[in-house]
């Protein structure tokens, strides 16, 4: 049998291991092989006891389970009906999925988790919430009215190998939102928001409208602004001038609702495979789609960091919650007048918040919503609340100060040692290579497929300038080249890069071909394109190309 010391040295030598030397509480060191395992153990041993002691799960969020730490990154789509949520998923995976319904009326009336599976099929909500391999068990608390409107669509898709996508019912507007859903829609979305990696809010550029229910939903996502991205969909249905007005109106409306100084990232486009109705902004749509795809493709690589960040947010909220509950317990009388005192404390909860903020130097942003907390406290029995237990809080502080820092190092190690993780397949592969890749044949890529040197067509014009710059032995000095190049008004940093690219033979002088190349690169930059890091083969002057 292997000696404990041998096992410890072997594991500590592993690239994914670290040893927690918390001698005050444990003699045996904790060994974590992966970030997910480390998060799971830290939660169970250090944060969960605090949550249970102060009934955190009754107020905020159910306890986390193993599946919450191991599941793939999830993308949550939220929007009013007919904004193109289901079509967006269809566009990403490039195939139909079970339970998919698309139409101008409210068609998706369920939460559908689109996930990877060996065969196509549907799993109903009641079966999903008893499956320990799925991260949905705690949704059981929302009852049958919700579970009858929750399902999982499984299908073999390369996109779903890396991420899962949650389709949601269209948020109602006008008269329709008066119809009761039978469950707390905003609370369900908030549950998902805590666990997903990206929240995409979809808006229809053709009929921009933010209903009261949608406003409430966005406010429910208040603590997850870092996960939110906005898509202004169906932008090909309106003219450029109108699109600018719609974009401005959307930013103004979001600014009022989200109420943060940071501007939310908005992607403009038409996310489906149909021809563009008004193709004027085709290049803008292509660039925006590529940016959004890159954002989604980065999710698997950043999944461990996101889970670590969410655990830190949860720990901070749990600490504040413990201070609130223990403060209420402290203020309660032992025998008489409990009910009247309870009403007084609930009404004066804002003052208790301010007192805790001062005494414990806690940021106001860490406190839960005052109105929501007052509503939840109305039904609670304050006599069952627990007094402050410093040992539990010290354990969480130790976790935040020491263990999380070590896990952060592990996150970077895992990222560097894993192969380049990115979402593949479906629409993500459509423009990666070939002439339909974003920017192919434009800017520095112009002439990539031409037999003739692309700079050659403008070379006679550049030659006229070249021979006015006093060439010696067919070459001009850097000083003479600079006099001409600065006329472009480009910054010296840019012109310096152009010089390095154009001086192909690195002799500190430019011949007529190199000077023409420098002017071509200046034109590329002035037209708004980026310069290449290295000179592409098709831009190398003919006389400088090596014969194979």
From TrEMBL:
Domain Dynamin-type G as annotated: residue spans: 69-300
One GO MF term attached to the UniProt entry: GTP binding
GO cellular component terms, semicolon-separated: plasma membrane; recycling endosome membrane
Residue stretches making up the EF-hand domain: 490-525
Keyword Protein transport: yes
Span of domain EH: 458-546
Membrane topology note: Peripheral membrane protein
GO BP term, pick one: endocytosis
InterPro entries registered for this protein in UniProt: DUF5600, Dynamin_N, EF-hand-dom_pair, EF_Hand_1_Ca_BS, EF_hand_dom, EH_dom, EHD_N, G_DYNAMIN_dom
Gene3D superfamilies: 1.10.268.20, EF-hand (1.10.238.10), P-loop containing nucleotide triphosphate hydrolases (3.40.50.300)
Subcellular localization: Cell projection, Cilium membrane; Early endosome membrane; Recycling endosome membrane
Keyword vocabulary terms for this entry: Acetylation, ATP-binding, Calcium, Cell membrane, Cell projection, Cilium, Cilium biogenesis/degradation, Coiled coil, Endosome, Membrane, Metal-binding, Nucleotide-binding, Phosphoprotein, Protein transport, Transport
Subunit organization: Homooligomer, and heterooligomer with EHD2, EHD3 and EHD4, ATP-binding is required for heterooligomerization. Interacts (via EH domain) with MICALL1 (via NPF1 motif); the interaction is direct and recruits EHD1 to membranes. Interacts with RAB35; the interaction is indirect through MICALL1 and recruits EHD1 to membranes. Interacts (via EH domain) with PACSIN2 (via NPF motifs); regulates localization to tubular recycling endosome membranes. Interacts with PACSIN1. Interacts with RAB8A. Interacts with FER1L5 (via second C2 domain). Interacts with MYOF. Interacts with ZFYVE20.
Name by which UniProt lists this protein: EH domain-containing protein 1
Naturally occurring in which organism (per UniProt): Rousettus aegyptiacus (Egyptian fruit bat)
Source taxonomy: Eukaryota, Metazoa, Chordata, Craniata, Vertebrata
